[in-house]
Amino acid sequence: xxxxxAILKDSFRExxxxxxxxxxxxxxxxxxxxxxxxxxxxxxxxxALPKLLGGQPWEPPxxxxxxxxxxxxxxxxxxxxxxxxxxxxxxxxxxGGGAKFVLxxxxxxxxxxxxxxxxxxKAEKGDxxxxxxxxxxxxxxxxxxxDGFRWAVYAWAQPAGEKVxxxxxxxxxxxxPDKRLLELVxxxxxxxxxxxxxxxxxxxxxxxxxxxxxxxxDNVTVTRRPGAAEPRYEFDVTVPTVSGARGWPxxxxxxxxxxxxxxxxxxxxxxxxxxxQLVNGIGSAVALMISVxxxxxxxxxxxxxGSVDLLIAKxxxxxxxxxxxxxxxxxxxxxxxxxxxxxxWLATGVRSGSWDPSFxxxxxxxxxxxxxxxxxxxxxxVFTRSAIAAILVTLGFMLFLYVFGKVxxxxxxxxxxxxxxxxxxxxxxxDTLNNVLPRYKDLDRLISRLVxxxxxxxxxxxxxxxxxxxxxxxxxxxxxLGFIAVMLALASWRFVKRDY
Amino acid sequence: xxxxxxxxxxxxxxRIEALKGVSIRVEPGQIxxxxxxxxxxxxxxxxxxxxxxxxxxxxxxxxGHAAGDPYARKRVGYLPEDHAFPVYHTGYSLMDFYGQxxxxxxDDRRRMIPEMLELVGxxxxxxxxIRTYSKGMKQRLGIAQSLLHAPDLIILDEPTDxxxxxxxxxxxxxxxxxxxxxxxxxxxxxxxxEVELVxxxxxxxxxxxxxxxxxxxxxxxxxxxxxxxxADGQAFPADAAVKLGFAVAPxxxxxxRFEVTLPAGQTIDPVLRLVAEQGxxxxxxxxxxxxxxxxxxATVEGAEPGVDRRPKGRRGARPVGGDD
Lengths: 500, 324
Ligand SMILES: Nc1ncnc2c1ncn2[C@@H]1O[C@H](COP(=O)(O)OP(=O)(O)OP(=O)(O)O)[C@@H](O)[C@H]1O
Ligand SMILES: [Mg+2]
Description:
The structure holds 2 protein chains of 2 kinds. Chain A is built from 18 helices and 9 strands.
């Protein structure tokens, strides 16, 4: 243990010797300052609510129409066939950063169909819309059919129905039965009596749940307002505060407000851009590459004549020495990750009030990703004792994994969609390689997922999860660890056998 | 228990046979010197003992453990030749790192490191990066690190390499003190004058073979040889002396001088009488003292037949002392 700590400290010294680490820390600091310069101001409720609720006839169904049954315990969503629209009215901003408004619910009405001219025919004036413009405020004009809102509340409160696949995912499932793609649950069949039995409290709880899940607002009070004739409903909604609500549209301005703020993005979208694209995407790629270059010198330096004797002559086994040194080499990226990720987390936390610690997981995962690359570097270094060889091979391997990740994705998609006909053996080859190669790309996707879960609303993260086939942590880490172990075993074997 | 013991130790690096069956034994409390020309296999022997290089055949043990066992190295300090300390360390931090590897407690390290660096005279620079050290300072640091954990055995491969004359004397004195404290020292050196001054025993390696081994006294012992010179113009009665049983040989680099070797149990007196009887005047009479260097050169050259330097004989003593 003492020896391990000693070698870690030694590696740390080696890492902080020279200017590169300071350059990296400087870049990280710059990134943190950049992130700290971004401010997030909740949009006024009058602007925000229409964006949040959608519901104009030309808009796609708003997220509020997505239902997580079993009072939200089911992560697979459902919807009911009778679509409803949610619209705000009498919107007021309240002191303390909250909002008060009336939520109007009513059956959805399709956009009036346009009649287009057949090509070559001359259009005649007044011929365009031959349907009568329906009157929004006239309940008599509402489409007939089951009461969509009561059905939604009923579906929400009922246990989840049977899981079904969307037809798109069906083909994929046949190819690979374990695959989980866009899983939905069937909405419960509801009788007239069932719908009648839905209480006002259920409705209020449902609306509260939808706000918490899709806007990220807590402690919302919802009471049903009398007056509207069913299937129309009205609720008094009070949101005590929207600060930190991830789904709430925010005005986001960068560089301390030098530029006019960007409107229309939710807080979650802003944060997830910073955390996923900026830090986990660009930042970690840069950090990985520079770390590969810096650390490639560690083992060749250790193995230099006159230097290796000194360490081997100490009472420590060679395998231990090499493994400790390997772990020590990870301190470089760990340090940078701590400063960059920790700093960005603090900066976004202070600026946005969103303190989800999941983002900090980028630190160990990035270090682990580097551990894969560094294992390759160590093997090459032990065999060749050349830092240049270690750098070239490792960067080449990095590129190979990246390209292979893309190829694998293409094969996965191709299996589902059938873009092109590929021979059976090519699938076998790709799958076999995928089983033995470290899951470099998957680690990246898992981070994206963590970031999604820590920046977006519960509802959005769940919906994103349905679209992306996330790899499993155990599989990803397990295969990668196996790869690292094989690499280190190879390096150790060589190191132990060799005379210095 | 011997501190170091090797039996029929062999090592080949591919086709190069660096050691061809070397057996030595170092007892506790000795200062043991290993001599030999460049490439004789001295460093190889040390590296095998420390597990840096694997032996090809034979046995080697260190403090009772098989060589190569990490545990055997626990009580051993080592200064390699041509060492390259990691330059990102300061003298102090390097010692601290090594102390930790030896399992020294923090307090011991804090106490011992400045003490050891003081001992080798670089305590004033202990917080500077090693990349700013001069060659001799690095060598001194190397010695300090080999003593840090008060090891039972200290192995030094050319300890005074790159150290100035004053520093060399300090190091010699230091070795003496270490011996007094009961440490065993094993060293490689080309500076035979120094080895002669500090070592109890030496071994001479010649192309991987042990050619001589013994105490300094054993190796430098001279079988009564005298350097004799008469007054100018007088001829030494060589034939008469040979008849009396003395071996006589002219000293090639000093005209008129002769080396006279006594037969067993004899003194120089018969030769002096002979000189007096013939009415010659003695001007020069010195009992030859062989230095370790002489002994070494004699050994090394003697074991290397066919070298054209040999007939010239740089030292007059050699042809006589070449065989007994
Ligand atoms: N790693 C190695 N690979 C191949 N040959 C080696 C290696 N190390 C040493 N040798 C050879 O083994 C022989 C002995 O070398 P060694 O270093 O032990 O000599 P030495 O007695 O220490 O010489 P010096 O006085 O120059 O330090 C030499 O012929 C050398 O070339
Ligand atoms: Mg040597």
